[in-house]
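Archive entry. Fields below.
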Amino acid sequence: MDIRRRPREKSTIWPYLLLLPVLIVMLSVVIVPIINAVSMSFQSYNLTKPKKIGYIGLQNYATLLHDPLFWSSLLRTAIWVVFGVGCQFLFGFLLALVLNKQFKGRGVVRAVSLIPWVTPGVLIALMWRWMYDGNYGVINDLLMRLGLIKENIAFLSKPGTAMPSVIVTIVWQGIPFFALMLLAGLQGISYDLYEAASIDGATGWQKLIYVTIPSLRNTIFVTTMLRIIWVANSVDVIFNMTEGGPAYATQTLSVYIYKKASALDMGYASAMAIMLMLVLLLAAIPYLRNTFRDQEG
Amino acid sequence: MKKLFAVLLALSMMVTMLSVACAEETTIKFWFWADNDDYAATMQEMIADFNATNGKGITVVGEQYPWDGGGYSQNLLTAAIGGGGPDVATFKLTATPSFVGNDLLAPLDSFIDAWEDKDQINESLYNTMRSAGGEDAIYVMPWNTQVLYVYYRPSMFEAAGVSVPTTYEEFLDACAKLTRDTDGDGKTDVYGFGMRGSNGGQEPWGCFIYAGGGDWEHLDSEGAIKGMQDYIDLYTNGYAPETAPNDGFAEVIDNFKSGLTAMTIHHIGSSAQMMELFGDDVAAFVFPKGEGQWTSMGDTETVMFESCQNKEAAFEWMAYLATGKGQETWCTVTGNVPVAARVQALDQFQSNPFMKVSIEGAPVAGILPVRDTTTEWIGNWPSMIQQALLGQISAEDCMKTLQETLWAE
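PREDICTED_STRUCTURE:
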């Protein structure tokens, strides 16, 4: 009896032991910081006022509900994500379709198209900041030479142009990610499907709508979801281009959180971070449901 | 007996070796910022010189961090609280309350009292350092100062028929006259004033607030609002580049160096670059008096952290910077105003025209109020000013908010 049990017990414990290192790492770098952030969000935790640090219940949350900057930053986050990720997807998809075709020099084009994705965000921001510069920027110079403008445009110093300018930058950065992921998906679609569609008399457009896109459904879903979360959380590009200015015109919630945390008001910054996390969780629910449904299926 | 002698000998040798090893291993981690690569290289050369000549086995390891419009102080505070800070760091007085409030800084009184060079530094500077800590202790060691003044291009003044302004009204008038379309294409080629609407702009802006009749204690006063309105008018009238709301240190200096602006405000730290580029075609004057007069004393000090394991060694390095060879080297290269009397008396400082303007401005130079709200206020300043410059809020509303946030309890 005992002899039979031992191997079964061993096999029950062994997988958990194998998972333990990962669990410890997850606990230390994900769970503990989240718990810490939640705890700080209920405290007056301003490092410039160390003597006032202590629990204050829901006061930080109550304050942010009445903070017009919080709501305007949340709205700008929505604009930033919708236009940023939307255009990244659109142009990334087009690039993937092009790169999926056979043509001379395709390898080089594929490699070059990855450059924006592998360039650090801070460097991208500084590069575009100088390109947009209202006095010496190359974009103004080009537009002037093309006769499209008569006077330089201070792209990053005007509220009307600052947000579109930073969105163009994040779009430029994110296109390769979508292109790469969708290209991988495109290469997994069986040629038989296209052949069958051709026999049925489908046009190129119909093949795209009825074969390509349905076959890429999961890839599109996962990549878009991931990118929404990354873009919503990103600070580097906006902060290094405009610091959220001029006059808050490019201040997304992540930038606002960063600025509050930089001003050492960790309690309020944590409360806003928790709110952003909840908003993103709402966006991620369809992704999670989809993942679990696939696993169950 | 022989055995005992051998044991004692071995022990004494071990103690000697250990003490030598300990002396050799005294390492001081030092954080600093530098305005450009040349200054950073100079600091590393000074560190190498100190390490080679201190004769006490002290090794300073210098780590450069960007000033980042004041972000340096916040990064330093975060690092120190998290346990990853340095032993000694360069510092700004306005950051003192946050550091003292968190018990991070070591009091320096006992070191200074026992220091042979104590009298090289004016007593009034020690008093300023003492008052910044809010207690009867000195936490901050004087190093050098920079007085903000107005840089200008004499050739542009001549072309526009403008003489050096002696009053605030003349200064505003000069901003208008110096704004010119030099090639007749209908577009402005030279702007009168290089305005800093982004990080760090609160210091030159303070000159306008005082000239208008305000002061730091009463930012919502009629005079302060007038100064703010003048500042807005300079921008909306087109006497400053359109990019001004987002222009920081790099932009205002580049705009002046490229000839886009005829005047801008900075301290002597930029003079070496300016003279190298323009030769005699660059000069300076103290921001002129209006209803009142103020300019920023850009102080730079050093601090020692309470967590420092070898405070005597750390103070040796701080002393080298304050009155030793480091003081002379740093102030010579950067052009900053020395705090040590011996160095101030050197010919190179007495004959420098920009140093002369710095000294002229010193009587009206001051620092921002040192409060626990100051750091956050400095961080919020650009957003408030940008709103006013872009016409989203009035000068009055802007100043009311700045008053409330600076003096909030």
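CURATOR_NOTE: Chain B touches chain A through 37 residues (CB under 8 Å).
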